[in-house]
Amino acid sequence: MSNESKPPVLILDERVPTLFVDYDGVLHRGHAFLDESNEIFLDTGIPLFEFSPLLVSLLEPWPEVEIVLTTTWLSRLPVDEVVSYLPLRLARRVVGTTQGYRARFGDWKTGIARTYIIRAYVFEHRLRNWLAIVDSVYGAHDLSTDFLALEPHLVLLDSQRGIGEAQAQQRIRDWLAEVHGADRCSD
How far apart are CA 150 and CA 140, in angstroms? Predict the structure, then answer.
């Protein structure tokens, strides 16, 4: 018998369906800028949050789905203000943000910081049923573990199409159906 201690086992047992949502390149095409008067505008010149009604519609049949914001807006604006830009039916679903989670310097350098931060949130909150819709998430293979493959949980979007792209919408619908089907089978 060995005296070596085994690392603690992480159990992902929180079943609430959780959707990680970025703003830029997801809920609208393009990237936002904050001007000197604290006005937000997009580099594409289109209206902010053009795809918010679409996300409201996709989530409508699933009232238990919660949202965690993972937008870079959190680094420039207070959380309440960031949430206030969402339609009320989405804002009510927001249960947290990835603000305060820090990636390692090397992760910023290699471009996998956002994936690292999302994974840290998932681990801390022991999320089992989650999906991240973002326009910049890399390193899923490198950050996957023996008990959690990240690739199936990440939807990388084209920032010029966001969730307006039919494939992105279908991926969200498939995840919603899969999560709700799995929960029914395990009860």
Answer: 5
